[in-house]
Predict the structure.
Amino acid sequence: MYTILKKTTLGPSIREYIVEAPDVAAVGKAGQFIVLRLHERGERIPLTIVDCNQETGGVTLVVQEVGKSTREMGDLFHEGDSILDFAGPLGEATEITNYGTVICVGGGVGIAPLYPIAKALKAAGNTVIGIIGYRSRDLMFYEQEFAAACDELIIMTNDGSYGKKGFVSDPLKEILDSGRMINHVWSIGPAIMMKVCADVTRPFAVPTTVSLNSVMIDGTGMCGGCRVDVGGVAKFACVDGPEFDGHQVDFDLLMSRQGYYRDEESCSMDAYMAKHAEGATQ
């Protein structure tokens, strides 16, 4: 059992958890993830590691409540409660070296897993430009953390309620169009955002790394659920990734696969909400 040491609400349906998992905290690195299970009847949830504290044994995760299990975690699991399974670290860690000048582009909840990468890149001596985007100001989180991890920070909101109005791909293109030397780009967020960012960097031949959150079940490559097409070759996000060359990823196939279980997920959420509402009235 793994104890929740701290639970913080970052925004609407977005929560940060620090879970006591000393074995994971001792070796976890930027770019890797864990798979947790809340209880015996729970599904396996893959979540990217945001931070590891070797002194406290705490592993930081950011969870967006988009499905039944993440909603259940937000509703019922609080500080002092225990999670049944917490497996990891899984996946390949981000390759951190001194590239030169790099850009870290994050969108929505993808900003959370991008943060430790930006921090590690800066510690390695890179000049780090951060571009982070949100739908609106009320969904913002980790602004101060990113400001500390970057040499330059650009904040975008779709509706213009904070920072600059537009999408993260807009300043990315502006920087590349300016002729400034950029040695590497990381992009983490919704699949369509990563696709657009990869399309922006491709004409400039700037290496672009994306992190793929495809359908995962066992996290060991055995089930094949997280299969992605990279350069015409089948890869498994859980063991070969989750990071890949964004210029080689078949994003159209990835996005179609992400919707395979939409009906089942909706049914599961409806059943949970009905049960939750029934319990609240008793």
